[in-house]
Amino acid sequence: MFPGESVSFGCHINVSTGWEYLWYKDSNQLTVSGNKYPISLVGITNSGSYTCKAKRGSDQAFITDSSQAVRLEVEGNMPKPSMTQQPDVNKVYTGESVSFKCEVKLSSGWLYLWYKDGTPLPINSSSFNIHNATSSNSGTYKCMAIRDKTTYSTEHSDSRILRVSEIPVPSVKLVTPWLDVFPTERVKLSCVMNGTSDWTYTWYRDGQQVLADGTVIFDSDAATLSISSAAASHRGQYSCSGKLKSRSVSSTFSSVQTLGVYDTKPRVTLMQNPMHNVMHTGDSVSFSCHINVSSGWEYLWYRDDNQLVVSGNNHTISSVLRTNTGSYHCKVKRGIYAVQSQAVKLDIEERPLAYITLLTGWSEVFSTDSLVLRCRVLESQDIWNYTWFKEGHPINFSLSEKHTVTPENDPEQSLYTCKGIRTGRPSYSKTSDSFHTKNLLLKRRVLLSISGFIFFAIIAIFIGCIFLRFIRKPGNGEDKPEETELFLTMAQLKDRDDALCPLVQYITDAELNASSKKEADENGTISDETTPLPISSQEDQAVTSESHDTTENNGGLVSFKQ
């Protein structure tokens, strides 16, 4: 029993009449008379074992044996039914069957009431079945129980939410991002069902089921189909269907994906622009790598079999260097499949250098105020036109190799450069080194003036020496023979014994003049040029000694001339 229910006990004896009834609970007599003992609202305290006896007479009363005991159990709480669902999932798919069951595990004699979204359903049994579920069966379900005799009702069961969904349609996805492949290339397709893993899949090609073989491989749920080496037999329209792992629910077919397999491998072409076998430093060149079919390719670039850090199907060198010389090729790749192009040879030569020379000569610096510059291309036999630049800006004159700088057209005396241009290859040269015209005429004039001054000074000194030689007086009134040479050879010294060397004569005269001057000073007289000079230093003594030696050599200087 449950709190609040009512119960009634009755005591009956099968013979005679005039009986009085005694009631006992757990062997304790109750203050109740009559053959019925009602309890209108039972509680926990009413739990126990109930018996009764019959008594007749007063003095020597006859009392029957106790009746059988009736055990009354009163639960402490109101019962709550439990509701179960099969299949035990929150979401079912259209067409499936669902059953609910409501149960009170204590006692018996219950009737059951069902509710959907709070609305009673016309069902009194303990189970409730839905066959061929549709989306209209979605909702919140619960139940409760009542006593069929006491109308005692339980609490409501916990609610169960039922969602009925349409069976999803699978879709075929590309794992490899292309559907046209080449022989031996790999292909991978996947069958996706709302991103869940509750399904297993079946694959079809052109409506026929695809089975695993040496080149076709499935994963554990067949969610992925892999072709390790594509062939013509793998061409076709691929689709898939799904089946729920835990229940007998199958989807419809997916949409198809068409897989194409080419008969031959692709052709890769490498193109160069401009298409010159020889390029010159500073030129721009670009390479393009083309493949004739399909898409999704990755491009790899190589020079002399060394991979370059370049992406995309174009490789441009904006200003080539000698180090860019080499053999170029490209390779297209997707997955592990790759095809290589033909090689293109690129030769890089150094671009010829222009240079500037000054045509205005030294002899013209005093007769002109202009400078004539000439531009040439170094070590080139080709015919060139020339562009001149002043301070980096082109001069809009003729294309001549010569350019004249005057104070009128260049009062600021600027930096000049030039460059050769032509219609052939190379079409232009390197720009020359800069030529600075600042004060060039003035500097040349100053240098020529200084050089002229030095030249005329040397001539003047030479003429002066000759002049002094002829106007000098001979010593001691002797007529000196005219000498053609200052220094005599050994042969001439042997032949000449009549006169002293002019230098010895000069030194001897100096000695005499110094002596005369000393005597004059001592006597208070003024010396003249005939007065000998005194020798007061070691150097003078050395000169005197040398003069004596000279005298010993017949009065002449010894020459090394042979």
TrEMBL record:
Q: Where is the Ig-like domain?
A: 1-64, 81-153, 170-250, 266-347, 352-418
Q: Name one GO cellular component term.
A: external side of plasma membrane
Query: SUPFAM superfamilies attached here?
Result: Immunoglobulin
Region entry Disordered, spans: 515-562
UniProt-listed CDD domains: Ig
What is the annotated signal peptide range for this record? none
Q: State the source organism's domain of life.
A: Eukaryota
This protein's UniProt keywords: Disulfide bond, Membrane, Signal, Transmembrane, Transmembrane helix
Pfam families annotated for this entry? Ig_2 (PF13895), Ig_3 (PF13927)
Show the GO MF annotations.
transmembrane signaling receptor activity
> Where is the chain membrane-spanning?
446-471
Name the Gene Ontology biological process terms.
cell surface receptor signaling pathway; immune response
Q: Where is the composition biased (Polar residues)?
A: 524-545, 552-562
Listed name of the protein: Carcinoembryonic antigen-related cell adhesion molecule 5-like
Lineage at the top is:
Eukaryota, Metazoa, Chordata, Craniata, Vertebrata
Q: Which gene encodes it?
A: LOC116058559
